[in-house]
Amino acid sequence: MKRIVTFLVTALFAAASVEAKPLKVFILAGQSNMEGPANINTFDYIGDDPATAPMLKLMRAADGKPEVCKGAWISYLTGVDENNFELSGKLTAGYGSLWDMDPAKPGDKIGPEFTFGLTMDAALGEPVLIIKAAWGGKSLHTDFRPPSAGPYQLSSFQRKNYPKQEGHGIPKDFAKWKVEKAKATGHYYRLMMEHVKKVLADPKRVCPEYDAAQGFEVAGFVWLQGWNDMVDSDVYPEVPADSKNPRFAKYSECLAAFIRDVRKDLNVPKMPFVIGVMGVKGTKADADILAFREAMTAPSLLPEFKDSVAAVPTAPFWSMKLGAIEEKYDQVEQMRYFLDAKHEDHPNANGKMTKRQKEAYVKSFEAKLISPAEVALWQRGASNAGYHYLGCAKTFALMGKAFAEAMLAMMNQRR
Fold first, then answer.
1. Model pTM?
2. Contact 231, 242 (CB under 8 A)
3. Is position 11 within any domain?
4. Does some domain include residue 17?
């Protein structure tokens, strides 16, 4: 009898152990596209496509308003001009970009966090906590530079030109620039880590369902960034066509160091890590964007990161239809510029057109170039510029879902 009781007690403890589910914590970080520029008024565009219409149903509640996740919470650190603030609560739409909005409540935009959380909530069936840290216009080479990458190193272009203090983008006071650069280096990496550790020190503050007896598990990290590095030709100067070193090789090195450092700082050596690979312009990307995509993907191909780092292309989620309309709107802006500049190849070459005449000409040009149907489609699906994936909720919803699915695949593989 004693043996039977002992067996039953042991079995019960074992069952309790199996059922224990630590709170799953996911960290999302990056710059403006991780902030999230997609306005919720573009949600209807998701339903226009039969392939994504089911996703829209998950994103909306029965009353037509954005869904509130039943088992996912978020703590979001962001800010403008060094005025940082935290917004937290149950995950719903509105935890995107908060520029010019009330920092005390969700706004009207989403990034990838919304469908990432919805997907995780559905797949795991247990409480999920997202810790998000994102700021617009931030680089990896300086702002998010990880500790192990060392001090910022001047590029060949900067070594040759910056000490000359010639202006035209080159600092006039090189000594002062170096001091400011050193101070800025890694600043946002440190802010990110400080926030993550603050939340993890008291998860219940953000997630009321947190059970201290079961604890938490830092289950993964998602990185969505890159624009400020890609367009910085001073930091990443052009290389000869026959060069053995890719133009953005330093970005790849820095991102690999970033992965190692966040794992070390969070004490999770094999933490699954998802890289959201630059997808702006979709299949019409130019050579620089293609080269940068390769640089972002490179760390996932390193042997040390096998099966624990996944590079997820976001180009397939770019709306080619909206992108084509954006190109036409760009032509309209170019025409406005040419008229103001009195360009010799355009109607105002002699500078005699009045402001009203110029505006009338631009409106006529736009009406001929962009059809009413295209205007309607643009208003339905886009809410921002190209470098922000056109502010298209469909794009960001697909991103978040793909990031979550890649994360789940790595988590399952670890099990």
1. 0.93
2. no
3. no
4. no
